[in-house]
Amino acid sequence: AGIAVLRMDDRGVGGSTGRLGRSTLEDLAGDANAAARLLRRRPEIDPARVGLLGQSQGGLVAILAAQGSDSVAFVVLLASPGVSGVELMVRQTEMLAAAAGDGPADIRRKAKSQEGIMKLVAAGADSAALHAELRKALRAEAMATGEGRLPADADLEARIRSELRTLRSPIYVSLVASDPRPALKELRTPVLALGGDLDQQVDPQQNLPEIRRALELAGNEDVTTHSFPGLNHLFQRAQTGGVEAYGRIEQTMDPAVLKKVREWIRARFGRPGVAR
């Protein structure tokens, strides 16, 4: 389509150095800006028309990288959060529980438990506080599912340690503590935000309106949001949107999404008669 794209490995993958789990969203935003600077120096690239595209967590990275920037020409957000990490994780818990067939009472219980844990993570709680909250959550889960008792101590501690490694990692803490709305209010560039209505990780009904609201409150007049029917978090054509199906679906990304991104960019940055 005449649009140049730079893609790079995550930290610690392929030729990239560093460790992703020990990074923060701000670190990754620095990586994104470094990539944009690299593109602007290339002779075949128009430095005034370099934008950022991020998917899921990458959308938060793109927002942070573009925040207050005069050199980012546009931002494309794919299945990206528009609410705080706590709100996001609670809603994700509700959707996954509903998809698993849980009833309303179990969904509320799981959501409340997740909210308590996520608030501790966002506040930077220490391992002891998180350990206690996780133990309480596992006890409640055992009672609610009819097991009536906790797993053996060794098994319980192993589960808690595994959870703590994730909950205490800098990248996870950074995600849960995030709220993109203040940064969105500083974006003056055109923004395209897309979602799939079967997404069980980043609910488009929760996030797309918040992205639009934050941008429009700040006076951004070029905001486009759209939710595609029948697509999951990865924008694959899906039946349920379940996470477990991602690897079984052969489609990488529905062509309609690529078309939408391509046409949106070309409508704003293509020159008449010139393929860019």
Automatic annotation (TrEMBL):
It comes from the Bacteria. Residues 1-91 form the Serine aminopeptidase S33 domain. This is Alpha/beta fold hydrolase. GO terms for molecular function: carboxylic ester hydrolase activity; serine-type endopeptidase activity. It comes from Eiseniibacteriota bacterium. PANTHER family: ESTERASE ESTD (PTHR43265:SF1). The keyword Hydrolase applies. It holds the Pfam family Hydrolase_4. GO terms for biological process: proteolysis. Keywords: Hydrolase. Transmembrane segments: none annotated.
